[in-house]
Amino acid sequence: MTQHLTAPAPTAPAADTAPGWWRDAVIYQVYPRSFADADGDGMGDLPGIRRRLPYLKELGVDAVWLSPFYASPQADAGYDVADYRAIDPMFGTLADAEALIADARALGLRTIVDLVPNHSSDQHAWFRQALAEGPGSPLRERYHFRPGKGTDGELPPNDWESIFGGPAWTRTADGEWYLHLFAPEQPDFNWEHPAVRDEFRSILRFWLDIGVDGFRVDVAHGLIKAEGLPDIGAGEQVKLLGNGVMPFFDQDGVHEVYRDWRTLLAEYGDERVLVAEAWTPTVERTAHYVRPDEMHQAFNFQYLSTYWDAEALREVIDASLAAMRPVGAPTTWVLSNHDVTRHATRFANPPGGTQLRTPGDRALGLRRARAATLLMLALPGSAYVYQGEELGLPDVTDLPDEVRQDPSYFRAAGQDGFRDGCRVPIPWTVEGPSAGFGPGGSWLPQPEGWGELSVEAQTGDPGSTLELYRAALAVRREHPGLGAGETVTWLEAPEGVLAFSRPRFTCTANTTGAPVRLTAPGTALLASQGAAPAVAEDGTFELPADTTVWWTV
User: Any idea where the Glycosyl hydrolase family 13 catalytic domain is (predicted)?
Assistant: First the structure.
């Protein structure tokens, strides 16, 4: 293996603390399949997203991150890319993408697109030619083809497992094996090959020339594999987070790739960004991806996977801020995305990871989710919002087996395979064939009563989750103590309560199931549940259970 957790990090340039829009941005993730359908085929598309951009502007976000819309056989919902410069017909055309990016810019919204460099589709031109030409083909060197072990090469080249379950190797008709850390339809690129690096430089330029503001890099930790592809020797199913150092994840060689990309982006000015989806064992390892000459942001999965518990939250907040401070990168905060159970459902259940199968206590989950949102938006740095969380959507946990499409659901011992529940198309209207998602149905069935959670139903209701998000984002944008920063000052608080200050601002969050009496730190701005609390003559107030309150000081 080429690196260990105890190995010293490569020396980084001095921290860059220059202003950048991403340092305090609120970025909204759009999952194109499930956001808005313009043509009525039941699948979300780029024209649908384009029509809904004014909603995102009104919501108060700064940028839109689009999950993959590239030409793809859709074996893994578009994360198996056949052509990185083409739009899949189910989503529209390249002209639609250009129009969307231009409209977003006209509204003051920036656009970040997903980039999938760890693997391609097995229908990518390179891979198809590599298969057709057989062993010895130069195209096979751009992937990881190997002879098998055993008498007749009948065993995989090593013991690596797919994240989706089963071996990470598939045998071809000619007897060789190829590596795929995810589905068999997603062969891994060999990033030691110069043609792969050249191709992705070209892909970056293609989209930068069209006008995107940055890239979210999928599986950013997975590009480089340890020399010799050594066995792991462990019996536990590999996970994206929690297995420690693996010979195919978080290898030091990935940083050379991102330093090269950062130099390329600089040719387009200083406002184009790279965002790492890097599942690493610690936030300290994550910080390596955002050194001043590498990426600009990295997702904070340690925060996402933390339960609604004051002690655990304080620990991960402190660790996250401390890890990013030396490299001068903004800390990011995220509660949900397209790969995990929505936090309104996670917090409705006892602690149990990021993929759950039970609905739990819906009212409790929503209450905690609203409180967690205000806590997240009060922290220094940048925040990510996954589509529909501003509506308080729960996960759809009772989808029939026959409608599920998550590839990991169909493979033994991999991820739990219940990601479809967070991908059900979001509701826009109370009535309609798909609650306003489009003029037809929806690719995953929406549950009964979905329209009651819609944008239409919640707009104008001061107690709705949507209006809470709108209010919180407006305050965050205007209050001088919120947004970018590197530190919080913790205040004395009872067990189960988080209280911290920032310039002219204080946040109090009660993670317990009982109300707590505290001294009011100032004038209440916003509460996650109900009206702002009343302050008694003695200067105290009651902080309800599972509630966060913002104060201006």
Answer: 29-419
Which amino acid is residue 185, in one-letter code? E
Q: Residues of CATH 2.60.40.1180 domain(s) within the chain?
A: 486-550
**Tally of CA atoms within 13 A in the half-sphere of 364 that contains its CB:** 14
Using CA atoms, how far apart are residues 404 and 167, in angstroms rounded to an integer? 22
Q: At 237, is the pLDDT very low, low, confident or very high (cuts 50, 70, 90)?
A: low
List, for residues 290-330, the tens digit of each pLDDT value.
Answer: 999 999 999 999 999 999 999 999 999 999 999 999 999 99
- Annotated catalytic residues are 218, 277
Mention every residue, 6+ apart, whose C-beta is less than 8 A from residue 199.
none
CATH code 3.30.230.70 for 24-117+193-228+236-471: no
Residue found under tokens 């007897």: 175
The candidate with the shortest Cα–Cα distance to 395, out of 73, 154, 118, 34, is: 34
* pLDDT higher than 50, residue 413: no
pLDDT tens-digit map of 73-94: 999 999 999 999 999 999 999 9
Model confidence at 268, pLDDT cuts 50, 70, 90, reads very high
Q: Cβ distance 146 to 157 under 8 Å? A: yes
* Mean predicted lDDT score pLDDT of the chain: 93
Query: What superfamily does domain 486-550 belong to in CATH?
Result: Golgi alpha-mannosidase II (2.60.40.1180)
The neighbouring-strand residues paired with 501 are 489, 506
Would you state the torsion angle of the CA atoms of residues 169, 171, 177, 182, taken in this order, to the nearest 10 degrees? -30
| Residue spans of alpha helices (H) in 211-253 | none
> Cα–chain-centroid distance for residue 215?
12
CATH 3.90.400.10 domain residues, the chain: 123-177
> Measured in Å, how far apart are the chain's first and last C-alpha atoms?
52
- Report the alpha-carbon distance of residue 324 to residue 300 in Å, rounded: 11
Are 179 and 71 within 8 A, CB to CB?
Answer: no
> Angle at Cα 116 formed by Cα 112 and Cα 121, nearest 5°?
140
Query: For the domain bounded by 123-177, which CATH number is listed?
Result: 3.90.400.10
**Which residues make Cβ contacts (< 8 Å) with residue 258, sequence separation at least 6?**
217, 220, 274, 276, 289, 294, 295
Query: In angstroms, rounded to a whole number, what is the distance separating the alpha carbons of residues 251 and 540?
Result: 52
Query: Is 50 exceeded by the pLDDT of residue 498?
Result: yes
Least Cα distance to 414 among 163, 199, 127 occurs for: 163
Of 428, 457, 495, which Cα lies nearest the Cα of 44? 428
Instruction: Say if residue 1's pLDDT is above 70.
Output: no
Quick one: tokens of 360? 């739990």
Beta strands in 272-357 (DSSP E): 273-276, 297-298, 332-334
Strand stretches in 277-370, DSSP E: 297-298, 332-334
